Amino acid sequence: MKSARRIKSSSVFKRWRDLLFLTFTTGYLLSLSPPLLLNAEEDQISQASATPEESGPYLLERLQASRAKLKSGVFQAHRVVTRKPTAREEQDQAGPYLEEKIFCAFDFEQDLLRFDTERSGENALLNQVFRYFTTRTEAWHFMSGRNGNMLKKILPHGHLQFRGEFHPFDIRLVGICNRTEFQQVSSYEKLVEFYTKECTATGKLLEDKKYLLTLSHNAGKAQIRREIILDASRDFVPVQFDSRYLSSESEGWRSLHPSITVEWKKSERSNAFVPAKLIFPEETADDEITFECKSVNQPLDQKWFTLVDLKIPHGTEIIDASIPVNPVLEQP
Q: Is 95:81 a contact under the CB 8 Å cutoff?
């Protein structure tokens, strides 16, 4: 990438530093779930006078009930990451940095997931293909890119530990976490458990049948707030997400990223709402994912969860990574 496209803004560095801090602390808390000490007297006082419909736990329950209606489905998505011009660039010098075509089939009750991506970008290193499926008994991950083709056999649902270039996401995470968590946390159940058990939830009635759900927790000496706007007219789907960070009273609350927004539509054959567009705005780029749901809560084609359907090219390297890191061998 040309040097004119390099960004050396201290404000951008500071924002990314804060965002990485938030993601690290959240991942740590989700994995270990230590007891948190939260000074939430002000929130508790405000909730004492709130109606049941405005309470945080009630709103969190409605959010979970709304997402629980999405049991299985098939969707295609188109992701575009567009760079914003820097002070040294003209407006027409910026443009799509990365494009990604996504196919996903899922059944949460049967523990089935198929997730394929095909990426292209202004940098040839971004041109990659990933195909992945998992069932309760097996999982395979195919990769094609600058290092050739590789097929890995991994532990079922091993995508929950994926780090690096490939990040299959859970569609139920749309609108309830930031961009980095959306690509790396993967487990909707763990995130909801964290919100329910480790966060203080408060609610507030806004206008146009919308509610503000605030989830607060401590991370060391810092305080973190996640603010989710729910639309009661559309079964309490999340339409906006913000996260704020307070390290000291003198600095005040700081926003970690611009507001994340979601557009929704109702499935024609079910009463579940599905995402239509998800936008992650950033200072340096806009990350936008457009969804096209093909089916919701309908039977899936079982061929999607077979090795044959991955269409592995001849000569692909095959690796068995399904053996645990520290296996225990029992004597006969």
A: no
User: Within 13 Å of residue 57, how many CA atoms lie on the same side as its CB?
Assistant: 8
Confidence of residue 37 (pLDDT cuts 50, 70, 90): very low
For 26, the token pair is 């959240």
pLDDT tens for 3-32 read 433 333 444 444 444 544 455 445 544 444
CA-CA distance, 160 to 187, in Å (whole number)?
A: 7
Average pLDDT of the chain to the nearest whole number: 81
Lowest mean pLDDT segment, chosen from 54-68, 172-186, 317-331? 317-331
The amino acid present at 222, given as its one-letter code, is A
Overall pTM surpassing 0.90 (yes/no): no
- Candidates 219, 284, 279, 211; CA nearest to 245 is 219
The angle, 0 to 180 degrees and rounded to 10, between the axes of the packed helices 10-32 and 188-198 is: 90
CA 29 and chain centroid, separation: 16
Are 167 and 180 in contact, with CB atoms under 8 Å apart?
no
Kindly tell me the number of DSSP H helices and DSSP E strands found in the chain.
5, 15
Q: Encoding tokens for residue 313?
A: 């090219």
Identify the CA nearest to 296 among candidates 14, 104, 82, 46. Answer: 104
pLDDT digits 0-9 by tens, 182-202: 887 668 999 999 999 999 999
260-266 and 237-246 as β-strands: parallel, antiparallel, unpaired? antiparallel
CA 104 to chain centre: 14
- The closest of 125, 159, 149 to 319, measured between CA atoms, is 149
Give DSSP secondary structure letters for 159-194. GGG--SS-----GGGTTSS-HHHHHHT--HHHHHHH
